[in-house]
Amino acid sequence: MDWEPAKQLLLSKAAEDRIWAYLELQQDLVFPKLAREQRWVYAAGALELGAQWAADFKGVDLLAAVGRRGLVLTTGDLGQRLRAAYAPGSITINRRALERICQALPAHFLTYQQLERATIAHEFFHALEEERGCVDRCFPAVTIWKLGPWRVRTARVRAVREIAAHRFAKELAALPCLPIFFDWFLLAESSPDFRSSLPQLIGEVEDLLKNSAT
Ligand SMILES: [Zn+2]
């Protein structure tokens, strides 16, 4: 598939949060252990949670809220892909990765300022998790193996933290899509192999979505 039609396909689906949330969930190591009917519960629940946390900050100056928590904003080169990093006490923004996204997308799609704000908001969400507790605790743990009734090992679904952080960022920066979308967009731009699998991948997720709604 050529890049131009793939780009149009992706842009036409950009606003479909559930597709990108589901694909994020699919990256989680415990995804295969989730029952089929549970998967949407995690993806949709994480989207909802991110929106709820964002509602607490509507009308609040984001940078002031970041400062009030003692977080210092810095810039640093974190390579081509990683947009930012959070460590207790600081958020590092990787301008190079943000500029690359802006260059790849049509000019009307988003501004650098919006993307930077979303990136700060995403990392701020993880800082809030330290105060409020990690959001993966709001979802049932998954049994990853079981040997008899006593020897059971469970794991948390970490992807829900990312999905919620992306939704939080989307809301607070008024982005047209979840920031996860940018990763898939750049991957499609650089990989012809991935591009050729794109219509099928999106089609499969849309089918799941339809079936889960009925
Ligand atoms: Zn994150």
Strands side by side in the biggest sheet? 1-3-2
- Rg calc: 18 Å
Question: Are any ligands bound, and if so which?
Answer: zinc ion
Order of helices and strands: HHHHEEEHHEEHHH
Strand content: 5-15%
Shape: globular
Q: What is the tally of helical segments?
A: 9
Report the end-to-end length measured between terminal Cα atoms.
32 Å
By secondary-structure content and strand pairing, the structural class works out as: mainly alpha
Q: How would you describe this protein?
A:
The strands form 2 sheets. A 3-stranded mixed beta sheet has the order 1-3-2, covered by helices on one side. The protein has a two-stranded antiparallel ribbon with strand order 4-5. The longest helix is centred in the C-terminal third of the chain and has 22 residues, at 192-213. It has one domain (17-178). With 214 residues, it is mostly helical. The model has no long low-confidence stretch (mean pLDDT 94). It has helices spanning 3-13, 17-26, 36-55, 62-68, 95-104, 112-132, 159-173, 180-190, 192-213, and strands spanning 72-75, 84-87, 90-93, 142-147, 151-155. It is globular, with a radius of gyration of 18 Å. It has 9 helices and 5 strands. Helix 2 (17-26) crosses helix 3 (36-55) and helix 3 (36-55) runs parallel beside helix 7 (159-173). Strand 2 (84-87) and strand 3 form a beta hairpin. Zinc ion is lined by residues 122, 126, 162, 165.
Brief description of this entry?
The chain is built from nine helices and five strands. With 214 residues, the chain is mainly alpha-helical.
